[in-house]
Amino acid sequence: MNDSHYFITGSWDNYQNSIKLWDFQENEEDAEVYPFPVAECPHKGDVTEAKFLNADTFVTTSSLGSVHLMKIVSEHGIEPVIESKINWENIHNFPNGEISPCTSFSTYDNDVATVGEDGTINLLNSQNQNVVRKIDNADSCSIHCVTFLKHSEILTGNLRGHLKIFDIRAPKNEPTTTFMLSGTQVSPLCLQHHPTQRHLVVAGDEEGSITIWDLRQNTYPVNLLDAHEGGVAEIRFHPDQPDQLFTCSSAGDVWHWSPKSGGIASVGLGTAENVWLASETIKNKLDVFTLMPKLHKPINSLDVNRNKVICGCDNEAIYLINGVNIFK
């Protein structure tokens, strides 16, 4: 993965929301990095989530139930611009016709799975202007999060703490497996699969806990970590070093979880034990680092690239953390 010097942000609760493209230049003589906006485009409704499909194409979802495919167009010597490619308008709505916010989405190659407060799953493709498949009544309540387990399988988490696996090739609109996040009705806020071992799934919930499953075995959690004081807003494995995990929370924390030096390693080939599937002693094998002082306002999103972590806060600020110690 190349060093990225671009990133995007999406606004919410503004009179006119927008997507911004930012750039930053690094200087070997200066450790500080100074981002600056280079392009902006309007966005209907609050931006509920944004993710890149590839180096120049990204997807955003809206509180107005729409999904948007956008592309960064850059010609040599000319400032880049953001172009709208496909708008899937109002694909989430309640039975009475009211608009439903699209709460989350996941991508796999060119495929996109979206979920919403309407309990519906929409399957999209970046090459197709039409909805590929709509799974109505996939859930009886709001679906908070979704992730692809494989090309034909997705995992969703709902308001009541139910996690459901759907085979999206099957003709029926029913899940193949349903299990609980915990014994009580705690809502999952985010789901993330391991970059090289997709059967390893991590969920962050509204009470600040992180739950880990190995879905090859069964639907009983392998590990439960009491983590943040507030809800876990986002979880990210480092794409190149997947034994490194990053989390942020509504309590204003950004944490870096890393195996202790000399501890067990995580490798894609399976020649070493995966730290996230370790037994109860996992807590003794991890160091947790606070990447910035607690802000006392929710950190609502984060991303990681090489040794940089970026996060967005409810104080309307973006924080770019440089020089994170990834390599042991």
From TrEMBL:
Signal peptide: none annotated. The keyword Ribonucleoprotein does not apply. GO terms for cellular component: nuclear pore outer ring. The keyword Nucleotide-binding does not apply. It comes from the Eukaryota. Keywords: Nucleus, Repeat, WD repeat. This is Nucleoporin Nup43. Transmembrane segments: none annotated. Its main location: nucleus. It comes from Tenebrio molitor. InterPro entries: WD40/YVTN_repeat-like_dom_sf (IPR015943), WD40_repeat_dom_sf (IPR036322), WD40_rpt (IPR001680). It is found in: Nucleus.
